[in-house]
Amino acid sequence: MRFRHPDGSTVHLAYCTNVHPAETLDGVLAQLRDHCEPVRRRLGRDRLGIGLWLAKDAARALDTDPAALRGLRCELERRGLEVVTLNGFPYEGFGAEEVKYRVYKPDWADPERLEHTAALARVLTGLLPDDVTEGSISTLPLAWRTAYDDARAETARTALRTLAERLDALEDLTGRSIRVALEPEPGCVVETTGDAIAPLTAVGHDRVGICVDTCHLATSFEDPDTALDDLARAGVPVVKSQLSAALHAAQPHLPEVREALAAFAEPRFLHQTRTATAAGLRGTDDLDEALAGDALPDAGPWRSHFHVPLHAAPAAPLTSTLPVLTSVLTGLVGGPHPLTRHLEVETYTWQALPPELRPRGRAQLADGIAAELTLARDLLTDLGLKELP
Quick one: which of 321, 316, 275, 320 has its CA closest to 298? Predict the structure, then answer.
């Protein structure tokens, strides 16, 4: 979906396909047929943006076989789909029964992360629509916080500088500009937007910026205005933003609230949980840890890294951080010029919701994704952007 900003620039809205896990190119092609095109049809649009997730094997197949890349591009066009951004965070196994900490490997101190991301960039230059010259790739925020020392930090910085040089060369070769965005996430070396400023400044290249994920920002109790102001002051570009909402519990000390939260504790993904205290942010790596005894102070609200559907907040006594998303979006595209032109709805946890909230079959999932995109579209038009055909 494309929107015209009042300044005349085009803002792209997509939804991320990591909600439909596939490890192979054949699986990606099936996603387009079984999920993405049906969502487009529900929206009644001739064109729908998707934030493509390409696992290791699919990315390599496309990078090494020009015919396969041409085939994917033709299939996108045939189904009324377009790609301007990739989710390069998960490497493989995102559809496994247990993902948890595995999603942070390989990290930016591992050569494979550099090679994978460079391959994604090459693939993206071949997928961009003819009238689009800029693409983006979100990636993990350096590494999970443990086992990350000064030596690994320097290796990661060197890898990002090398990537920036390769992206420069890629633009010289193809005429298409690809930028990469570190995506702050609770528990990682770069947990907040503030944490991103020093390492990105050290890399010192505008090819590498930040992806503002509104669920992650809310989970860490960041103030949206302060976060965006600090990034602007430091000269850190917002390459893309993922529009997502976290789980919010206003009164976690109440037994009925804990019972409601327990329904969201599940074995597949990590759900880092945070609370703001007078002494600073406190947290656990997962929701079940927070619910175990007194692991986390409960005098104030809790927020958990659980991407809940944008259009359907959980039932009381829980809710979502949709107001944070709205505030961030206002800061990003509600001003005289957009701070980013790539927006991506990323609710990958549909099948991890409590059983009674999960979609039953492809049709209900497509309905839900279309409803999320409709909400995002309405937020954008309320800010003065005009949806394009």
Answer: 275
